[in-house]
From TrEMBL:
Keywords: Signal. Residues 51-272 form the Solute-binding protein family 3/N-terminal domain. Transmembrane segments: none annotated. This is Amino acid ABC transporter substrate-binding protein. Residues 1-22 form the signal peptide. It comes from the Bacteria. The lineage of its organism: Bacteria, Bacillati, Actinomycetota, Coriobacteriia, Eggerthellales. CDD domains: PBP2_peptides_like.
Protein backbone atom coordinates (compact mmCIF):
# COMPACT_ATOMS: atom_id res chain seq x y z
CA UNK A 1 0.00 0.00 0.00
CA UNK A 2 2.89 2.32 0.91
CA UNK A 3 4.59 1.45 -2.39
CA UNK A 4 1.47 2.34 -4.31
CA UNK A 5 1.22 5.70 -2.54
CA UNK A 6 4.86 6.48 -3.27
CA UNK A 7 4.37 5.49 -6.91
CA UNK A 8 1.35 7.73 -7.16
CA UNK A 9 3.24 10.65 -5.64
CA UNK A 10 6.16 10.15 -8.05
CA UNK A 11 3.76 10.05 -10.97
CA UNK A 12 2.09 13.23 -9.77
CA UNK A 13 5.43 15.02 -9.42
CA UNK A 14 6.48 13.89 -12.91
CA UNK A 15 3.19 15.13 -14.34
CA UNK A 16 3.67 18.53 -12.71
CA UNK A 17 7.21 18.65 -14.08
CA UNK A 18 6.03 17.87 -17.59
CA UNK A 19 3.31 20.52 -17.41
CA UNK A 20 5.84 22.99 -16.03
CA UNK A 21 8.28 22.29 -18.86
CA UNK A 22 5.51 22.67 -21.40
CA UNK A 23 4.57 26.00 -19.85
CA UNK A 24 8.19 27.16 -20.00
CA UNK A 25 8.44 26.06 -23.62
CA UNK A 26 5.32 28.00 -24.56
CA UNK A 27 6.53 31.04 -22.66
CA UNK A 28 9.89 30.87 -24.43
CA UNK A 29 8.19 30.78 -27.82
CA UNK A 30 6.08 33.77 -26.91
CA UNK A 31 9.14 35.66 -25.71
CA UNK A 32 10.97 34.84 -28.92
CA UNK A 33 8.03 36.06 -30.97
CA UNK A 34 7.87 39.27 -28.99
CA UNK A 35 11.61 39.85 -29.39
CA UNK A 36 11.76 38.84 -33.06
CA UNK A 37 12.61 42.36 -34.16
CA UNK A 38 15.04 43.17 -31.35
CA UNK A 39 18.79 42.91 -31.65
CA UNK A 40 20.07 40.61 -28.93
CA UNK A 41 22.68 43.09 -27.69
CA UNK A 42 20.75 46.35 -28.13
CA UNK A 43 17.66 48.02 -26.63
CA UNK A 44 16.27 49.12 -29.99
CA UNK A 45 14.08 47.36 -32.53
CA UNK A 46 15.28 46.35 -36.01
CA UNK A 47 13.41 45.09 -39.06
CA UNK A 48 15.86 42.18 -39.16
CA UNK A 49 18.08 41.27 -36.19
CA UNK A 50 21.73 42.01 -36.89
CA UNK A 51 20.90 44.25 -39.86
CA UNK A 52 20.41 48.00 -40.16
CA UNK A 53 17.86 48.44 -42.94
CA UNK A 54 18.33 51.86 -44.55
CA UNK A 55 15.75 53.46 -46.84
CA UNK A 56 17.09 55.76 -49.53
CA UNK A 57 16.04 57.29 -52.85
CA UNK A 58 19.07 56.59 -55.07
CA UNK A 59 18.64 59.49 -57.49
CA UNK A 60 20.32 62.31 -55.62
CA UNK A 61 24.03 62.37 -56.48
CA UNK A 62 26.49 62.91 -54.86
CA UNK A 63 24.49 61.75 -51.83
CA UNK A 64 22.88 58.58 -53.17
CA UNK A 65 22.78 57.07 -56.60
CA UNK A 66 22.87 53.72 -58.40
CA UNK A 67 25.93 52.99 -60.52
CA UNK A 68 25.95 49.61 -62.28
CA UNK A 69 23.38 48.42 -59.77
CA UNK A 70 25.47 49.47 -56.75
CA UNK A 71 24.47 52.08 -54.18
CA UNK A 72 27.07 54.87 -54.10
CA UNK A 73 27.37 58.32 -52.55
CA UNK A 74 27.98 60.24 -49.35
CA UNK A 75 24.79 59.09 -47.60
CA UNK A 76 25.47 55.48 -48.56
CA UNK A 77 28.91 55.60 -46.97
CA UNK A 78 27.57 57.37 -43.89
CA UNK A 79 24.95 54.62 -43.56
CA UNK A 80 27.59 51.91 -43.86
CA UNK A 81 29.81 53.62 -41.29
CA UNK A 82 26.94 53.96 -38.80
CA UNK A 83 26.02 50.30 -39.23
CA UNK A 84 29.62 49.26 -38.64
CA UNK A 85 29.79 51.31 -35.43
CA UNK A 86 26.63 49.56 -34.24
CA UNK A 87 27.99 46.14 -35.13
CA UNK A 88 25.29 45.64 -37.77
CA UNK A 89 25.21 44.75 -41.44
CA UNK A 90 23.87 47.57 -43.65
CA UNK A 91 21.04 46.80 -46.05
CA UNK A 92 19.74 49.49 -48.42
CA UNK A 93 16.20 49.55 -49.79
CA UNK A 94 15.02 51.93 -52.51
CA UNK A 95 11.91 54.03 -51.95
CA UNK A 96 10.67 57.19 -53.62
CA UNK A 97 11.86 60.16 -51.58
CA UNK A 98 8.47 61.30 -50.32
CA UNK A 99 7.57 57.73 -49.28
CA UNK A 100 10.54 57.24 -46.94
CA UNK A 101 9.48 59.27 -43.91
CA UNK A 102 5.94 57.79 -43.82
CA UNK A 103 7.49 54.31 -43.95
CA UNK A 104 9.93 55.13 -41.14
CA UNK A 105 7.13 56.68 -39.07
CA UNK A 106 4.98 53.57 -39.51
CA UNK A 107 7.89 51.29 -38.60
CA UNK A 108 7.72 49.44 -41.90
CA UNK A 109 10.26 48.61 -44.63
CA UNK A 110 13.30 50.21 -42.94
CA UNK A 111 14.88 51.11 -39.61
CA UNK A 112 16.24 54.50 -40.68
CA UNK A 113 16.10 56.84 -43.64
CA UNK A 114 19.28 58.38 -45.06
CA UNK A 115 18.50 60.28 -48.23
CA UNK A 116 19.54 63.91 -48.04
CA UNK A 117 16.90 64.67 -45.42
CA UNK A 118 17.02 68.19 -44.08
CA UNK A 119 15.63 68.76 -40.62
CA UNK A 120 12.50 70.92 -40.47
CA UNK A 121 9.57 71.26 -38.06
CA UNK A 122 7.05 69.52 -40.31
CA UNK A 123 9.24 66.46 -40.77
CA UNK A 124 9.96 66.38 -37.05
CA UNK A 125 6.26 65.80 -36.48
CA UNK A 126 6.63 62.49 -38.33
CA UNK A 127 10.01 61.15 -37.27
CA UNK A 128 12.97 61.71 -34.98
CA UNK A 129 16.20 63.04 -36.46
CA UNK A 130 19.78 62.37 -35.48
CA UNK A 131 22.35 65.07 -34.96
CA UNK A 132 23.34 66.59 -38.35
CA UNK A 133 26.25 65.22 -40.36
CA UNK A 134 26.25 67.83 -43.17
CA UNK A 135 24.90 71.31 -43.95
CA UNK A 136 23.82 72.29 -47.46
CA UNK A 137 22.18 75.18 -49.36
CA UNK A 138 19.88 75.49 -52.39
CA UNK A 139 20.62 76.41 -56.00
CA UNK A 140 18.56 77.19 -59.10
CA UNK A 141 19.85 76.04 -62.47
CA UNK A 142 18.73 76.91 -66.02
CA UNK A 143 20.01 76.12 -69.48
CA UNK A 144 22.72 78.50 -70.66
CA UNK A 145 20.48 79.41 -73.58
CA UNK A 146 17.73 80.62 -71.21
CA UNK A 147 16.83 84.29 -70.87
CA UNK A 148 16.97 83.78 -67.09
CA UNK A 149 20.34 84.92 -65.76
CA UNK A 150 21.95 85.59 -62.39
CA UNK A 151 21.13 89.29 -62.88
CA UNK A 152 17.38 88.86 -63.35
CA UNK A 153 16.73 85.47 -61.72
CA UNK A 154 14.35 86.56 -58.95
CA UNK A 155 12.15 88.60 -61.28
CA UNK A 156 12.14 86.12 -64.16
CA UNK A 157 11.56 83.05 -62.01
CA UNK A 158 8.51 84.64 -60.41
CA UNK A 159 6.60 85.21 -63.65
CA UNK A 160 3.44 83.44 -64.75
CA UNK A 161 4.16 80.74 -67.28
CA UNK A 162 7.56 79.92 -65.82
CA UNK A 163 7.84 76.27 -64.76
CA UNK A 164 10.29 75.25 -62.06
CA UNK A 165 11.09 71.56 -61.50
CA UNK A 166 11.58 70.33 -57.94
CA UNK A 167 11.89 66.98 -56.26
CA UNK A 168 8.60 66.24 -54.52
CA UNK A 169 8.64 66.68 -50.77
CA UNK A 170 11.97 68.52 -50.62
CA UNK A 171 13.06 71.87 -49.24
CA UNK A 172 13.50 73.02 -52.84
CA UNK A 173 9.77 72.59 -53.42
CA UNK A 174 8.96 74.58 -50.27
CA UNK A 175 11.35 77.36 -51.26
CA UNK A 176 9.92 77.77 -54.76
CA UNK A 177 6.33 77.84 -53.49
CA UNK A 178 7.21 80.52 -50.96
CA UNK A 179 9.48 82.76 -53.04
CA UNK A 180 8.11 82.33 -56.57
CA UNK A 181 4.33 82.16 -56.08
CA UNK A 182 3.58 83.26 -59.64
CA UNK A 183 5.59 80.42 -61.19
CA UNK A 184 4.29 76.90 -61.68
CA UNK A 185 5.91 74.30 -59.46
CA UNK A 186 6.43 71.00 -61.28
CA UNK A 187 7.24 68.18 -58.83
CA UNK A 188 9.11 65.04 -59.89
CA UNK A 189 9.89 61.86 -58.00
CA UNK A 190 13.64 62.34 -58.27
CA UNK A 191 16.26 64.93 -59.20
CA UNK A 192 17.33 63.07 -62.35
CA UNK A 193 13.87 63.58 -63.80
CA UNK A 194 13.99 67.28 -62.88
CA UNK A 195 17.12 67.88 -64.95
CA UNK A 196 15.91 65.69 -67.80
CA UNK A 197 12.72 67.77 -67.96
CA UNK A 198 14.75 70.98 -68.17
CA UNK A 199 16.92 69.51 -70.90
CA UNK A 200 13.75 68.56 -72.82
CA UNK A 201 12.39 72.13 -72.43
CA UNK A 202 9.46 70.90 -70.35
CA UNK A 203 10.45 73.26 -67.51
CA UNK A 204 12.47 76.46 -67.36
CA UNK A 205 14.53 75.79 -64.25
CA UNK A 206 15.42 73.31 -61.53
CA UNK A 207 15.64 74.12 -57.82
CA UNK A 208 17.37 71.62 -55.57
CA UNK A 209 20.30 71.27 -53.21
CA UNK A 210 23.54 73.08 -53.98
CA UNK A 211 25.72 69.95 -54.00
CA UNK A 212 23.29 68.07 -56.24
CA UNK A 213 23.13 70.91 -58.77
CA UNK A 214 26.92 71.09 -58.82
CA UNK A 215 27.23 67.36 -59.42
CA UNK A 216 24.61 67.33 -62.18
CA UNK A 217 26.12 70.31 -64.01
CA UNK A 218 29.68 69.01 -63.84
CA UNK A 219 28.91 65.48 -64.99
CA UNK A 220 25.78 65.43 -67.13
CA UNK A 221 24.37 68.89 -67.90
CA UNK A 222 27.29 71.03 -68.96
CA UNK A 223 24.89 73.14 -71.04
CA UNK A 224 23.25 74.43 -67.84
CA UNK A 225 24.36 76.96 -65.25
CA UNK A 226 23.52 78.17 -61.74
CA UNK A 227 21.69 81.52 -61.70
CA UNK A 228 20.91 81.66 -58.00
CA UNK A 229 22.31 80.15 -54.82
CA UNK A 230 20.43 80.42 -51.55
CA UNK A 231 22.32 80.09 -48.22
CA UNK A 232 19.61 78.13 -46.44
CA UNK A 233 21.99 76.27 -44.10
CA UNK A 234 19.99 73.04 -44.22
CA UNK A 235 21.11 70.33 -41.80
CA UNK A 236 21.17 66.77 -43.15
CA UNK A 237 20.33 64.07 -40.61
CA UNK A 238 19.27 60.43 -40.24
CA UNK A 239 15.54 59.78 -39.77
CA UNK A 240 14.25 57.16 -37.32
CA UNK A 241 10.87 56.22 -35.88
CA UNK A 242 9.60 58.11 -32.84
CA UNK A 243 8.71 54.68 -31.43
CA UNK A 244 12.38 53.65 -31.55
CA UNK A 245 14.18 56.36 -29.52
CA UNK A 246 17.02 54.06 -28.46
CA UNK A 247 17.96 53.61 -32.11
CA UNK A 248 18.19 57.39 -32.54
CA UNK A 249 20.45 57.53 -29.49
CA UNK A 250 22.64 54.77 -30.91
CA UNK A 251 22.89 56.55 -34.29
CA UNK A 252 23.83 59.79 -32.52
CA UNK A 253 26.58 58.01 -30.60
CA UNK A 254 27.86 56.48 -33.84
CA UNK A 255 27.87 59.86 -35.60
CA UNK A 256 29.72 61.42 -32.66
CA UNK A 257 32.44 58.80 -33.00
CA UNK A 258 32.57 59.15 -36.79
CA UNK A 259 33.06 62.90 -36.46
CA UNK A 260 35.71 62.47 -33.77
CA UNK A 261 37.74 59.92 -35.73
CA UNK A 262 37.66 61.98 -38.94
CA UNK A 263 35.44 59.62 -40.96
CA UNK A 264 32.75 62.21 -41.70
CA UNK A 265 35.29 64.84 -42.79
CA UNK A 266 37.01 62.33 -45.06
CA UNK A 267 33.70 61.38 -46.71
CA UNK A 268 32.74 65.03 -47.21
CA UNK A 269 36.07 65.67 -48.96
CA UNK A 270 35.62 62.56 -51.07
CA UNK A 271 32.11 63.30 -52.32
CA UNK A 272 31.66 67.07 -52.17
Amino acid sequence: MKFKKISAMVAAVCLVGVVGLAGCSQGGSADKAADAGKDAAAPYTLQTPGTLTIATSPDFPPFENLVNGEYVGLDIEVGKAIAKKLGLEPKFVSLQFDAILPAISAGTKADVGISGFTVDPEREKQVDFSTPYYTDDLSVAVLKSSSITSDNADAELNKEGVKIAVQSGTSGESYVKEHYPNATVVPYGNSNDCFAAMEAAQVNAVCTNYAVVGKMLSEAYTDAQVVKSVPTGEDYAVAASKDNPELTKAVNNALKELKADGTIDALLKQYL
